[in-house]
Amino acid sequence: MAWLRLIRWQNLIIILLTQWVVWWCIVLPGGPVVLNATSFLLLSFSTAMIAAAGYIINDYFDIRIDQINRPQTVVLGKVIPRKWAIIAHTLLNVTAIGMAGRVAMQAEHYSLLLLQLACTGLLWVYSTTYKRRYVSGNIIVATLTALAVLVLYVYEPRMRQLSLQSADVWILGVFAWFAFVLTWMREVVKDMEDMEGDAANGCITMPISRGLGFATNFTIVLAVIALVPLCVGGIALLLQGHAITGLYVLALLALPLGAWAVWLRRGPAKPQHYSRASRWLKIIMISGIGSLLIYKTQKDNRATNSTGITVATPQAAYGNG
Questions:
Q1: Domain limits of the chain?
Q2: pLDDT digits (tens, 9 = 90+) for 260-283
Q3: Which residues contact 164 (CB under 8 A, 6 or more apart)?
């Protein structure tokens, strides 16, 4: 259990689930050239392993901070020796690069591996340096979260050949943007929760540098930035006949996010409040995954009703490579 806690197994499941939904709903229906079932699993587990290695190295350098902020959850140095954490970090990264290399070889573009190498490097410098700096650490984590979605676009040649106006590319971009903004919001909220330990160890996060009020207002601005396209997209889906998807986006994404922003501002400036706020943001992000499944189901049903056959079939996933 200590190792599972160290690698944040719940977050890894969310990463795997997110990639599977994007692959199933966007990449698979068009007939993947590279990302068949086997290659997708290799790439997805590679992403999860790099994330797990990132969690390990982050805790390795954050032991003193975590002993102040959440001493009851610290396992590194207590249950798991620090040297084993470094070994696990290295093995996970090497295995992940090897798995991604197999997919890059199939795509005949070894340069694609630069993406995984860049992610491992960013996670290292984030843990050692940028986590303690103003804003930059938040942006790095948000960018890496968006890349977990965009990596499927990078590795699948069919996706890269599509026009930027293509519905698949547009949906993928919106999905990645939503992940980026909500992760940025969550990182700021976590900084508000961890102010005591961060301040004691010389961190210069937004709440420490500018105060809780400024950090709260900044997070609400990010929430508005996320809300506007959600509302526009939800209304557009309703007008285009995707009633179920449109209602889902408005009722289970836009409305909860707006309510969350109001609740964040009115709540007490205590770590427990920000901890709950962080958990609720994660729930909203998981709800975002469900919207893509509903969109695909409704789209497939409309195609079946109009032609008598199902247009998108999964056989292509197993016929390549």
A1: 2-305
A2: 999 999 888 899 999 999 999 999
A3: 170
